[in-house]
Amino acid sequence: MLDISEFSGLLLFMFIFTAGFWLLIFLLTFVVPYWIGGTIWENLKLKKEAREAADKK
Question: Residue 33 and residue 26: Cα distance in Å, rounded?
Fold first, then answer.
């Protein structure tokens, strides 16, 4: 059996490990695709504006 200090250490380790795991999952499924999609969208808008500016000249 574990005494109270070992148990609290194990509990703290498991909390930090699982929090890091879920943070990684969140970043990979929401933040990174949002960041990449926003970058692509912004580049397309800039290219469209540059094309329209070149057509007006």
Answer: 11
Whole-angstrom distance, CA of residue 17 vs CA of residue 6: 16
Task: Record the pTM.
Answer: 0.65
Q: Give the per-residue pLDDT at 56.
A: 83
The DSSP code sequence of 1-36 is ---HHHHHHHHHHHHHHHHHHHHHHHIIIIIHHHHH
Q: What is the DSSP letter of 57?
A: -
Distance between CA atoms of residues 13 and 19, nearest Å: 10
**pLDDT tens-place string over residues 8-20:** 999 999 999 999 9
Neighbours of 16 (CB within 10 A): 10
